[in-house]
Amino acid sequence: MSLRPVLQSNTFVVTSEVGPPKGTNLHHVLEEAKLLGPLVHGINVTDIQAAAMRLGSMATCHLIKDLGYRPVLQMVCRDRNRLALQSDLLSAWVLGIENVLCLTGDHPTLGDHKGAKPVYDLDSVQLLKVAKGLNEGHDMSGNELDGKPDFCLGAVVTPGANPVEMQILKLEKKVEAGAEFIQTQAVYDVGMFADFMEKIAHIKVPVLAGIVLLKSAGMARYMNKNVAGVSVPEELIQEMARAGEADKAAKAEGKKADAQVKTSIAIGARLIQGLKPLCRGVHLMPLGWGHHVPAVLKAAGL
Amino acid sequence: MTISEPKSLEEILTTLEGQDRIFLVGCSDCATVVQVGGEDQVKAMAEKLGEHGKTVTGTLIAEPGCHLLNLRRQFREHRQEVAAADAMLILSCGTGAQTAAQATDKPVHTGTNTLFLGCVERFGQFREYCSACGNCTLEQTGYICSVTRCSKGLQNGPCGGTTAEGKCEVNPETDCGWLLIYNKLKEQGKLDSVKSYLPPKEALVQPGQRTLSREGKEE
Questions:
Q1: Do B152 and A104 touch (CB under 8 A)?
Q2: ipTM topping 0.90
Q3: Which residue segments constitute the domains of chain A, with CATH numbers given?
């Protein structure tokens, strides 16, 4: 199940991300996939996200495909050399996985096995080119393949990076190397994103804007401080902070404290509506709030 | 310059256990500049070993420690002191320690950990610039090495981890290597040189021990 026909249609594309568990209990991730599957065009599965060791993306993608949904295998360059990357791509294809998002991958020192040897034998541009080569029937040494995949390849970009020109320079190489769609880092500022889209108007590949649901004002401040290229505007932080106060008061009175969830959903929907005229779709990264995604999509009119 | 740091005295004494007569070897080049195996450090180590009941049979400063023929000659010049020793303690880099192990039949121990190839920024301050990848692309990257200065060694541009302060998210003390490259090339009007695709490096995965023979090669 390739994303390609969806990308080539006029549909506003919606993808959402799930993260495999640390361990073998797949209940939560598959429940999230079942909840989101009917509402989105593709389900990304992260690849040892944040360099914290966990179950693999390929196995999870395969199970999501068996549920009847369209998985997007995230593949990072951090953990595998060129032999393993190519071999895993071929393995993914025979397991029915037809979409691959190629990323650099968070450095091991940011994760929970800080002494792990960082591989980065290929970078994300090189991985895209190699994957495209597999599609064309040869490995990166030029050897002919007996049976070839036909992956729909994706890449990422950080629209909020400064200077963004440096990101665009790499994005151009990614598209040249074979990227057919782009999923972005979280966007909170529609005006900033509009400027970004203007700067990449020459890149004719569908862009799906990244949406990370805000859980609290504290989370927003944490991201501003610690997540490179992500900037939550102060007015959104204040909106979440007011909801946080309301929840605190409600809790004190023994009432239902759902102001932050409601505000988060409203902000997410507002962002999607604002971004919709600017790009070809959105990519949700709910970070454990997958159960709120249906409400966000509904509020956004999707 | 090969940058090394001293091992702890405790670790050194553990490796020297049961070997009471020690011949000490420093190095005239890197280890002298880096202050792990110069005259002063060799003298200080001799004193410390003495305090812990060892007998130092002799010392020498290799010229330099990574030169096999010179080291053999210097060991011959000190043959009585070497012969009197149970073991040698080498205060240079990992190459120096292994060159010494080639040049003598005595057991050899190293007193340092070798860290990287570096530049001397000022007295006692060293910084890594080259990873000896064997496939130099400095010409494209404005003489700022993407293999060394980018924490992930990325060749085709930055990841998404450049902080608002222009640092690497991996280490807030470290500048984003790609931002340095970008700014320098932009300033020089040479951004085109990183716009084309750079293929994966081959030499990074060269197996085993690297060697080079320049015998009979014309300049």
A1: yes
A2: yes
A3: 4-213+278-291 (3.20.20.220)
